[in-house]
Amino acid sequence: VAPAELQKDEADDTQAGQEEAFTPPPPEDPELNINHPYYDVARHGIIQLAGDDSSGRKVITFSCCRMPPSHQLNHTRLLEYLKYTLDQYVENDYTVVYFHYGLKSLNKPSLKWLQTAYKEFDRKYKKNLKALYVVHPTNFIKILWNIFKPLISHKFGKKVTYLNYLSDLAEHLKYDQLNIPQEVIRHDENLRRKQKGKLPPVVKVPPPRPPLPTQQFGVSLQYIKDKNKGELIPPVMKETVSYLKSKGLQVEGLFRRSASFQAIKDVQKLYNQGKLSSTTASNSGGVLLTFLRPPPQPLLTFDCYDHILGITSVESCLRVTRCKQIIQGLPEHNYVVLKYLMCFLHMVSQESIYNRMTASSLACVFGLNLIWPSKGTASLSALVPLNLFTELLIDFYTNIFNSRTVPGEVLP
């Protein structure tokens, strides 16, 4: 029965496809180089990095409408590219948003390909996938789910959420960071028009309140320094690093196993009120990562972004020297805080036999929390240089940070 229903669903798609021709892919990512190992697939923009969800986890989107007809896209290469992309981020928790609209008979992968894809995404990929949002599901998705149900574990099934409208994403993700294809937006508008009744009223967001004197999150390093008698290292960083150094260095999966979103929010609130230090390795690790992400400017500053992206074009033997040159240009305060953090992460990497967090693993977790572009979010093609740069800072900490000292700086 299922295959017959799938054929009917494909026929419906074909009819819909006659009304709307395949849309060419968007302009290529300017950071995407023709020497990229999967340039033939990556240039379509099917898979993209899209900011954070409401728990601070990185979001990866998959847009079916950007898939060209099957004869123009090697689906085996698409699967390899998807794995290649996730390999750069699966060390940390992540979320996937799947935009189903635009999957038609002319670009739809075979059932055999889908089965292969599910089997190839082993525990490494499924473990840290915390949520899979399927936007604009159709009968095809629901039928497919029933076909694959015997293969899908109950635990994985609980991670899947169907969303009928784009607005439903807002409660789970930072919606404004998503790079949603225009075709998907138009489709959503058409669905809304067909929906009976009035659209829900727009909720007015109250203006932001001024930060507390004890505020630690979402304010600049300068603000924290001014409110803490000129101390260069923010109290939240000093306390979490101190705790992790004494009790967390040999905790397996440190930074990979995050505490619950609510637990992190509770600790954040108390820190902002000047009350608390965190009490567990997962809390402290999560709090440290959360602290790095929200400030108005990243620790490595927007000015460094393009320079860091160029690290992969530098000869291997010269990369450490290039890293040193880049960070020498940082403002004094940013340099001191970065040095403090890298000193600690170097310690963590030295205990990787116990905690399984090598410099490479730590770079995957921290890279995008140290630097991001001034507009929009980092693209997938930026992940490799950003992670490589961070890995070099951790691995060659002593060499890179040995030539610049600042009065009053402290180390873990």
UniProtKB/TrEMBL annotation:
Residues 1-34 are annotated as: Disordered. One of its GO terms (biological process) is negative regulation of endocytic recycling. One of its GO terms (cellular component) is cytoplasm. Residues 219-401 form the Rho-GAP domain. It holds the Pfam family CRAL_TRIO_2. GO terms for molecular function: GTPase activator activity. Residues 37-192 form the CRAL-TRIO domain. This is Rho GTPase-activating protein 8. It comes from Manacus vitellinus (golden-collared manakin).
